[in-house]
Amino acid sequence: MSRKTRSKTSFEAEKLSIGYYISSKQSSVYDHCLMMIGCGKWPAGMRLPSIRDAEKAWGVNRMAIQHAYRSLASQGVVVSKSRSGYYVTNQEGIHRISDHRIELENLHLRFSDTITKTTGLAPLPVFRYLTKLAQIRDREAPMCAFVECTLTQASAHAHEIAERLGLSVMPMTVADIAGKENRIPRSVSVLLTTYFHYTQLLPLQESGRLEVVTVPVEVSLQLAELTKHCRHVLIVLEKEQQTARTVAEDAGRILNCPPLEIRITSNVDAALTDILESSRSSEVPESFVLVSPHEWNSIDQKWRDHPNVRLVPFRIRDEAWDLIADMVGMPMGALG
Hints:
Elements: H1 3-18, H2 29-38, H3 51-58, H4 62-74, E1 78-81, E2 85-88, H5 92-119, H6 123-140, E3 144-148, H7 151-165, E4 169-173, H8 174-177, E5 190-193, H9 198-201, E6 211-214, E7 217-219, H10 222-226, E8 233-238, H11 241-254, E9 260-264, H12 268-276, E10 287-291, H13 293-296, H14 301-304, E11 309-311, E12 314-316, H15 321-327
Parallel strand pairs: 3-4, 3-5, 5-6, 8-9, 8-10, 10-11
Antiparallel strand pairs: 1-2, 7-12
């Protein structure tokens, strides 16, 4: 019997033996697959059900299944093989998922028993209440802060994490902290930042209370919307060649926008004056100028208000989410 036949037979047997049916109201495809992998029912090397088979068996549309499989692949739990499908990998992450699941199941049993014996209440509504209470406490005293040079960028990344992980993150600027630990709330134990500011914040680790973590970022898709009315040239003004190249490479890789022209200058304000005030068009200047976050606060307010000057928006890279989840203590496999 071929591996493909064995995998399909295994899936059919499992489906019939437990009568499993997934719906959007009951459980997610992602959670189910993760459970089957984490508990060892789908061992390393096993081929996941094909999109067609899963769609028929689970009653879920193929878009949901594809999204779940891609999420598993992004975590390294499964691997995609061209024209073959998705296969369970043999990696440490799977063992961590299994370990966390066992730990949490044991905690659930212990807490459920304690709740029943000491309060006489039903465990499920108590857990729901505690979840709401934890969310309130998290908003009041977040354990994590995202530090950037502008509040706009820090807030954007904090919002990304809140949306993805359901955790409150305090946006802060490098200027807010000014190298002083006492300016950081006591509840905060993790400082997330980009590589631009890592060396500035690193000394804050010396006390042992804080951990500084670099989060990989890339140019956001929002840039395409910001620059869609650009008629001719996109210019990146920067003091550092490497930063400008990073912005240009990201834009070329993920955005459908005109090529970026890099201009390295020691005086961003003077360069903005030269580019925009010498434009012949009074309605739509030929040039649209992008300024990175760490230069944004240094330019004159009139340029920050100018319709053709934009702060380069960044987003957290896909491969960074496992790192962030691990730093804030989320169980392996909690990312769907």
